[in-house]
Design goal:
Organism: Bacterioplanes sanyensis
Number of helices: 10
CATH class of the largest domain: Alpha Beta
Helix content: 25-40%
Protein name: N-acetyltransferase domain-containing protein
CATH topology of the largest domain: Endonuclease, Chain A
Distance between the termini: 44 Å
Radius of gyration: 21 Å
GO molecular function, one term: acyltransferase activity, transferring groups other than amino-acyl groups
Order of helices and strands: EHHHEEEHEHEEEEHEHEHEEEEHEH
Strand order of the largest sheet: 9-15-14-13-10-11-12-16
Number of strands: 16
Largest sheet: 8 strands, mixed
Oligomer: single chain
Number of domains: 2
Length: 303
């Protein structure tokens, strides 16, 4: 394993290869959003397995890093961690930087948090994907941040736009460890079709056979089986159940034992440490679940 520190002009081809596969082909980011003038001034990092380039990142002169990408077949093998450590080492020892910052995809928050990064709740879109700002003081040993962790983060969050709504939903799903209870009033809301939302829910369910996700919908309609969330339920039906309850009027997400997200007059509120509210809401959900009916479309497909 080798990490090469380089400039865009010297290694443009392998950098483009990795980023095109990960960001453009896999995540659907547009060519216009992916390529920018910052590549020309950035310091670039490429990880090689032998002669094959498999991961990359870049560091800008202002202390911002990004475009950290690992090819799919090399993930969960610590390549991302090695690359991030190389960026930090170069920033501290070669560039004299004390603080690193980034706009990170929300879906990758756990990765950065595990490496000592702190997050701000300034959610925003970048390339159609929910992001949040992260930072780390180099050379300082700090405790892992409790932000967005069930039973540790006592702050109340309010999302006033779609980016915040998607981000908090994904963060709650990523923080879940036991069970998620969902009520969705309108399955056609864009957030329920976003790849990162589906990925967060899928990661939660697939992590352990003891995990469970239950979903209540108010009604079904012809073609509901084509919705990506219902298709996900079909693939994971032993741990992801979906039923109908006509009285569902608004969205609610419960992450046992203490996470909750609900709509408010300002947008959506989220809490990661509200056991009392979650316990009461769970009782109501269980009563609704007892009175619910199976999806006819789902039954036809054998979900």
């Amino acid at each position: 394993m080798e990490i090469v520190v380089t400039r865009w002009q010297q290694h443009k081809e392998p950098l483009q290869h990795i980023r095109r596969r990960v960001f453009i082909e896999e995540q659907g980011i547009s060519e216009q959003d992916e390529w920018d003038d910052d590549d020309l001034t950035a310091t670039h990092f490429i990880a090689y397995d032998g002669k094959r380039p498999l991961a990359c990142a870049r560091l800008l002169p202002n202390g911002y890093f990004g475009r950290l990408a690992v090819l799919a077949e090399y993930r969960r093998q610590s390549w991302g961690s090695r690359l991030l450590r190389a960026v930090e080492k170069h920033a501290a020892e070669q560039a004299g930087m004390r603080l690193l910052k980034a706009s990170a995809q929300v879906i990758a928050y756990d990765f950065y948090r595990s490496h000592g990064y702190q997050a701000d709740a300034d959610f925003h879109w970048d390339g159609g994907i929910a992001h949040l700002s992260i930072s780390k003081v180099l050379g300082r040993n700090e405790d892992v941040s409790p932000r967005f962790v069930i039973n540790q983060d006592s702050e109340a969050y309010t999302a006033t736009d779609d980016a915040g709504h998607a981000a908090l939903l994904q963060l709650l799903a990523l923080a879940a460890q036991r069970e998620i209870l969902l009520q969705i009033s309108d399955l056609e809301q864009p957030v329920w079709r976003q790849a990162e939302t589906l990925q967060a829910l899928s990661q939660f369910v697939r992590h352990s056979r003891q995990r469970r996700l239950r979903l209540l919908l108010p009604t079904e309609y012809p073609g509901i089986a084509d919705h990506p969330l219902i298709q996900l339920q079909q693939r994971l039906n032993s741990r992801f159940e979906c039923r109908l309850f006509s009285a569902v009027k608004e969205d609610e997400m419960l992450v046992l034992p203490a996470g909750v997200m609900r709509p408010t007059s300002l947008g959506h509120s989220a809490h990661f440490s509200d056991r009392a509210t979650v316990a009461k809401a769970k009782e109501q959900f269980e009563e609704q679940w007892k009175s619910s009916q199976p999806l006819r479309e789902g039954k036809r497909l054998g979900l």
